[in-house]
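Backbones bend. We report:
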Amino acid sequence: MAGKSQEKTPWLIEYKGTIFPGCAPKENLEAMPDFHIRDDDVVVVGFPKAGNHWCAEIVNNVLRAAGKTSETTMDSEAPGRILEFDDRVGDEMRTNHRFLKDKPSPRLICTHLHREFAPRGIASPKRNTKIISIMRNPKDTAVSYYHFATRLGYNEKDWEPFHDDFLNGRWEYGDFYHHVLGWWQMRDDPHFLFLKYEDMKKDNKGAVEKVAAFLEADLEEDQVASIVEACTFRSMKVVYDKATDVSCRSVIARKGVIGDWKSLFTEEQNTAFDAKYKKKLEGTGLNFDFE
């Protein structure tokens, strides 16, 4: 069930037992399994507020620098446009999966979907499709999501009830662990590259080099350095804060730090998160840094 918290949040919908934002309407979600994935698509998948747009910017810059795409191929307005969303661009409401259907190759596609809701060509890729799974520790993800939703004006709750909803999978995109573990099953599949937000923060150059190698992009050192500089949080925040053309883009970047969860978590909340973290991830080989 959607839960008590959704009684006052009409912009949230429930689809097959999982809560989604209203900008991912049922019609879009129903179309997802059959959305055609091309052999040369590059896909970024991650739970919301895990660094999806950051990763997409790196991918976009790598492809451009390597000459694998042109100015007209990538969506310069928002390389991190989410597949299952409807986005407002100016006065137009745009259904992203229909927009992407007509885009020339290679396409950069982003999604927050659990693996069972994703297009078949992403959930079980074939041929040359490349998929980058970006993950962030659940505590910072929760705090970032709380501030993001509040700044957009669609979170009516204080931190404590939001924390409870996030922990129990009653917020957008449902249970964090269900999402990450669903994609983590593909860790040995060569179509996938797994990146962690915390590793990217600690070594942005290393992340750019990993993405370039995964995408088979042969870059010079000066090209790597230029991408690293363009994709620092500082540089991206300047651009994103001024954005007016794409819905939500201006509030995406806030602090971009590891350990911001300490600013809101109580000792009791931290204990509850630690207990679920251990229960869900122990023995899976998946772990996160929290500071």
Q: What stands out?
A: The radius of gyration is 18 Å. Residues 41 and 106 are 5 Å apart (CA to CA).
